[in-house]
């Protein structure tokens, strides 16, 4: 199995200049979406490469390409950082000094959020869902928890049952009273959320 890398410049692709605040304008055909972000914070190595995979026994006239978002950055690798570039810019613009988010005990989103917050000198509060029997125990240092603790994230555990009972809106009571930005990502998609992945789609347009 062999791979070939597709490279491109992309007029609208976000160049990498770490932690730089950059203006953002959606494509003309997406200007009706609301709300529209005005800026992004550069957190990722974009555009990520596109690799053509020469797989054996493919049907005739079939090609397989991989979008390598695992190469978007080290601790922030994966597609999670694409959304965080917009959301963290919004948090900073709102004057937040901490970030609150929720996820599973090994959530990649929570790990990426904690690292991004550390880069931006923001405190992070991670409310992690786990089983009822483990909620009062130390979650340890395995997997994403190691990275989260290394960057100083404040970790609080919640049982899946309690989360289902009180919902995401009331979970902020677990966090000290201070300016915060909530990255729950649980509400129905809004115009902004659609725009977050447009850059990725535009990068794919460079496949020959």
TrEMBL record:
The UniProt keyword set, sorted, is:
Pyridoxal phosphate
Which InterPro entries has this protein been placed in? ACCD_DCysDesulf, TrpB-like_PALP, TrpB-like_PALP_sf
This protein's cofactor list reads:
pyridoxal 5'-phosphate
Q: What transmembrane ranges does the database entry give?
A: none
Key word tRNA processing present in the record?
no
**Single GO term (MF):** D-cysteine desulfhydrase activity
Q: Which residues form the Tryptophan synthase beta chain-like PALP domain?
A: 42-158
Magnesium as UniProt keyword: no
The family this protein is said to belong to: Belongs to the ACC deaminase/D-cysteine desulfhydrase family.
Full protein name = Tryptophan synthase beta subunit-like PLP-dependent enzymes superfamily
What is the native source organism of this protein? Corchorus olitorius
């Amino acid at each position: 199995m062999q791979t070939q890398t597709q490279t491109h410049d992309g007029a609208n692709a976000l160049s990498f200049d770490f932690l730089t605040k950059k203006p953002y304008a959606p494509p003309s055909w997406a200007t009706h979406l609301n709300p529209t972000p005005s800026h992004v914070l550069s957190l990722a190595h974009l555009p990520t490469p596109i690799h053509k995979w020469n797989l054996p026994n493919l049907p005739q006239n079939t090609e397989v390409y991989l979008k390598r978002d695992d190469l978007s950055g080290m601790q922030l690798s994966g597609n999670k950082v694409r959304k965080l570039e917009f959301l963290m810019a919004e948090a900073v613009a709102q004057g937040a000094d901490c970030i609150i988010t929720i996820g599973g005990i090994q959530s990649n989103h929570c790990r990426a959020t904690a690292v991004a917050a550390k880069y931006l000198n923001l405190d992070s509060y991670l409310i992690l869902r786990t089983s009822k029997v483990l909620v009062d125990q130390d979650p340890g240092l395995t997997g994403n928890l190691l990275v989260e603790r290394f960057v100083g994230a404040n970790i609080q555990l919640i049982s899946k049952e309690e989360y289902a009972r009180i919902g995401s809106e009331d979970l902020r009571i677990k966090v000290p009273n201070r300016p915060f930005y909530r990255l729950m990502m649980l509400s129905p998609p809004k115009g902004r959320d659609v725009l977050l992945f447009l850059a990725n789609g535009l990068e794919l347009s460079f496949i020959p």
